[in-house]
Design a protein that fits this description.
heterodimer, A: alpha+beta, about 35% helix, about 30% strand, B: 2 domains, 5-stranded mixed beta sheet
């Protein structure tokens, strides 16, 4: 009679240790990759915005509408464009158009925001061992663009956008070229923003 | 028997006093409310402190949003709106920032106690002739969750509540 082969089910301790090591290596690689991706993402964003400049129309992808535009939700991400004498913000199928001639003031500023934001960012606050607090240390630089404009009945509106770092002055220039006005020229603003860097050198 | 009579008389008196007092209070509250069917919200000024423009605009826009949400007024006019000139029962809200401390969202999230943002605003409700109806100081804060601009939302919610209570 042919006897069935009996396989030993007792795991070899050396094999188990090897598999543990592989798991550890995999986790380390994943963590390193995610950190690199976060860094690369923040660096790549301004390049995308600069590449979007085409002809007469200038657009800035990755813009967030913080508040102020009628018919759009707060913190909606989309594309800001200066074209055909207007500021156009597009989010999916929704499009809000503000005539550049009605824009009375355009100002830029700088700020930072959490790299992991939104709902996921809020949920990380519940991570154990202060994991959420650790993640909130990772911050990416952003530019702010604020505009004041008038509606047809003369009512004053304000709108705030955040753009990838290094894009706000370009957006301001584009809006001014379309007919918007400002009390603080781009050159002065660029010089004011460059001053802190000179102090560091 | 006498003590029972005294105590019942006292109880009756107390009840009458309580009823009269509550009625008088309700009438007082009804009298303090100024009837207004429309409000015009002017752009937030900052004469005393240097306020970044994004905060100024966020204060103004959030004020309009929150006052509209209350449904207290038939019309909420913006600064410069020409239609406000002919509005009946119009109240004008002027806001002036007199204190501003910009905190840090990162500090707030890491420490939970430091990095708060605070905006102190003097709010003045007047009628069309400029007569003061109500003046009150309101503070907007963000202490833990949210960006610095969230302090403007906190301020706007408080002002909307004041408007509902007083008009």
């Amino acid at each position: 009679m042919h006897e069935p082969e009996v396989q030993s089910e007792i795991p070899d301790p050396l094999d188990e240790e090897k598999s543990n090591m592989r798991m550890l290596q995999a986790y380390t690689t994943l963590f390193a990759a995610s950190v690199i991706a976060m860094g690369a993402g923040s660096l790549a964003a301004p390049c995308l915005a600069q590449d979007a400049n085409t002809g007469n129309a200038t657009s800035f992808a990755g813009t967030k509408h913080v508040l102020g535009l009628q018919g759009l939700k707060h913190n909606a991400s989309g594309t800001l464009a200066a074209e055909n004498g207007s500021l156009v913000f597009t989010k999916g199928k929704k499009k809000v158009v503000v005539p550049a001639a009605s824009i009375q003031e355009v100002m830029t500023g700088k700020d930072t925001e959490r790299t992991i934001g939104g709902t996921v960012g809020t949920l990380t606050m519940f991570a154990p061992y202060g994991g959420g607090r650790f993640l909130s240390l990772f911050r990416s630089k952003i530019d702010m663009l604020s505009i004041e404009y008038l509606d047809p009945s003369g009512g004053l509106h304000g709108a705030i956008f955040t753009l990838p770092a290094g894009s706000a002055l370009g957006a301001k220039k584009a809006l001014l070229s379309q007919g918007a006005t400002t009390s603080f020229p781009v050159e002065m603003e660029a010089a004011a923003q460059a001053k802190p860097k000179e102090k560091k050198q | 028997m006498k003590s029972i009579r005294y105590s019942s008389a006292l109880l009756t008196l107390a009840l009458v006093f309580l009823f009269t007092a509550s009625t008088a209070l309700a009438q007082d509250q009804a009298h303090t409310k100024t009837p207004a069917s429309a409000i015009q919200i002017l752009m937030v000024q900052s004469d005393e402190v240097k306020l970044p423009i994004e905060f100024q605009l966020a204060l103004y826009e959030n004020l309009i949003d929150q006052v509209q949400k209350t449904n207290k007024f038939q019309h909420v006019y913006r600064a410069g709106d020409t239609a406000a000139a002919n509005a009946a029962g119009l109240v004008i809200l002027r806001s002036n920032v007199y204190g501003f401390k910009k905190g840090s969202e990162g500090k707030r999230q890491v420490t939970t106690v430091a990095g708060a943002t605070q905006i102190k605003v003097h709010c003045l409700f007047t009628d069309q002739a400029g007569k003061t109806e109500l003046a009150q100081d309101v503070t907007g804060n963000v202490r833990f969750v949210g960006g610095n601009l969230r302090a403007t939302l906190d301020f706007a919610k408080k002002v909307a509540q004041i408007a509902v209570t007083n008009f």
